[in-house]
Amino acid sequence: MNLREFNRILREILIVPIIALLLLAVFVLWQIKTTADAQRWLDRSDEITSQIQELQRRIIDQETGLRGFQLTNDPAMLSPFKQASAPIDKQFNVLHDLLSDSEEQSKRLAILHDRYELWLGFAQSVLAKDPATIGNPQMNQHGNELMENVRTVVHDLLHAEGRVRHQRSLAAADLERHELIVILISAVAIGLFLGLFARIRFRAVSRSYEAAINEAEKRANDLFESRQWFKTTLESIGDGVISCDLGDRVQFMNAVAENLTGWHLQEALGQPVEQVFRILNEESRQPAENPIEKVRRLQRVIGVTNHTVLLSRSGKEYRIDDSAAPIRDRNGKMTGVVLIFRDVTEVRRTEAALIAGEKLAVAGRLAASIAHEIHNPLDSVANLHFLIGHEDDPSTRAEYLQLAQQELGRTMQISRTMLSLYREPKAPVEVDLADLLKGVLLLLERRLAHQEITVERDFPASLVIEGFPAELRQVFTNIIVNAVEAVGAKGRIHIHMERVPAEEFRAAGAVVEITDSGPGIADQISENLFQPFFTTKGEEGTGLGLWVSLGIVQKHGGAIRIANSANHNLHGASVRVYLPFHTLASASSRSTAYLRE
Amino acid sequence: MPQSQTILCVDDEALGLQVRKTVLERAGYQVFTALNGQSAIDLFKKTSVDVVVLDYFMPGMDGGQVAAAMREVRKSIPILLLSAYIDLPSEVIALADITMLKGEGPDELLSKVKTLLIRDDARPEQGSYR
Questions:
Q1: What is the distance between the terminal CA atoms of chain B, rounded to a whole angstrom?
Q2: Considering only CB atoms, which residues of chain B are within 8 Å of chain A?
Q3: With a cut of 0.90, is the ipTM above it?
Q4: What is the pLDDT of residues A208-243, one digit of tens each?
């Protein structure tokens, strides 16, 4: 049940009884009116009776007056007679009106009037006659008869009216009883109806209230459960999590966050997040921009920031990766920010170890070539030394010495090239990529020759960029050795290098493209090529070469792309390395690859 | 001096090969040289050779392949396999009588050649010329 339905029921509970009671009141009023009507008819009968009795009294007064005059002949005796005359006429008129609704009684009244007129005529004739004849008994007899007739009709009238009144009285009593019963029944019916109605509606309300309480309780339980669920999840993950409101006040932090920041949740609650989560830039040691600030500014998730050091309350420092995301309400309005960070101190150390290891692995991959390059001249030098010892001819000895010198020079060159793989300046220096590639090819010369691999060098005599030569040498050694391993005997490798102008998102720089005649790259592995420990060479590979190469190139501000060659003559893999002319990298710049997640 | 024993020297390094040849000639051997595997095999078929001093790492056919081909011609031919690094495949080592690291010096070379010749003399000839 929703609120609208609830309000409708409340309205019904108010309005329905009012309407029912109004109907009852109208009904009762109607009943009262009916009773009043019946009472009026009774009153009318009483009025008629009293008027008839009044008329009768006046007529008797007149007759008494006339009789007194007849006996005494005293005119004073006639005064009642005369006085009653006018009221009697009026009385007749009143009765005429009152009895107009009853035909029978009207007829009786007319008869009475006629008989009274007859008597009155007699009385007039008595008064007009000679006083000597007034006492005539015969006359008196006639007068008495006439008056008796009047009396009979009056009696009839009274009797009839009495009957009518009796009937009306009985009917009124009946009506009253009837009405009482009807009113009682109606009241009881309305009462029952209202009771039942209220009961039904209240039950509906009560049921919905109960349902609402149950629902609320269930929701509270669900909410608690889901809070526990998320809390436990957040507590159990290995990342530090801090969430804060829009005022940058800490609202929550998990155990990992407590550990790393050195703050307990209870202390940190409500504190400004910058105070709890203090971060510095790893290189500049300046306070780093708070990711929460950045999320508020950009209104979106921000990814992992690197080179960040978290300063714990205890003074301990942790290298961290951090990211932050806005918390939004149902309408998409931002209500807070959640900050996620992890301690990568160990990861960075491991990465550094892996990178150092990979450097050695590159040397290992060159070992066969280098050993050959060094042992061959050494062998000649040893043999020449032996010959010099047994040679007497000075000119032949000089020739041997010169040959030995030449062979030692070659050894020096090889050793110098090899060492340049490791010696690294502190800041980027000018590197001639053409020289660098030539050096790499020199180290691989023997191996290339052994496999009868043709290397097509399609690059300018000199192309200078800024960078770290040893690292770049490592990158190209890796890529070229991969190509050598891919093409097998009698394969072909094409190395192309050119300058590229600046584009919208890229500075001017150099692109080195190394294409081989090998089998190319299978689709399913192309996306894993840069993942650490991914190798197609089984036990032979470390799986770190391209990962480290990508890291180095990215550090220089460049990029690597690997695809299958579009060249018709060379169908293998094509690796394109872009390096900008100027780099912002420093010796301490991060050199691990950023990989797409 | 007895009739000099013949050695076939194979290496793609021209200078190294030349110096090695001089050292061996100085010790009294007759030395033939070849700069790659194929010409070495051709030469081996045409000439009577007592010992082969073979470089492993060469363009085209490597020392292992050359040794295998020679063993097909003459199964017991003594072969000294030279290499610039230690990590030779075991099946290649099995093909050679003795292996030697380049740079070990001429004394070592001469002593190993000598060992091979003595050993070769001591056993009956099993191979045959085709």
A1: 30
A2: 12-13, 15-16, 19-20, 22-23, 26, 57-60, 62, 82, 84-85, 87, 101-107, 109
A3: no
A4: 888 889 999 999 999 999 988 888 888 888 899 999
